[in-house]
Amino acid sequence: MKQLSGESWVSRFQGSSDTQTLSPIFRANVNNFLKSLEDAGVRVTISATLRPPERAYLMHWSWKLARGMVEPANIPEKSGVEIEWVHNGANGKADRNKSINAAKAMVRAYGMSNLNVAPALRSRHTEGNAIDMTLSWMGNLEIKDNKGETVIIKTMPRDGMNTQLHEVGKSFDVIKYHGGANDKPHWSTDGR
Questions:
Q1: Residue 175 near residue 168, CB atoms below 8 Å
Q2: Of 125, 144, 148, 164, which has the fewest Cβ atoms less than 10 A away?
Q3: Tens digits of per-residue pLDDT, 170-179?
């Protein structure tokens, strides 16, 4: 039996924030990059690694519905996810606003309120080839790249959006998302 969409769905099909769930080659690259970051004193908070396809489905469609980009009745079903996107009003008829409000609650609970692009249905996360992490530091950053050479980063911002840091990540084959600020914490095997 289907259950109405809403915040309660966020606790289902849990993703991981553990690098051990990444694909073997990417895991090794990420762990080496993380060691370099941590040795340099960068604060690292990992929010996501592997994402089950069911979770990706819920995130994708709740994000789109919350922004009115899709009608609730037009969201395709996914095997194993017994969700009802269409909420009814007191008159028993579909209530678009109730459906959108339930999707907005899901978006908030997933922590996607500031995300400017819909999470992909099939992505590097569902393959174990992506990591979402928030990075920050104070002052100049002295960090070693994958060749062991010290890179001094004096430029702003002092977070994961720093283009010099992107080059350091690239030396470890951990590539910053190519879409700019649309998905600030996202790094992967190929920037997608």
A1: no
A2: 148
A3: 999 999 999 8
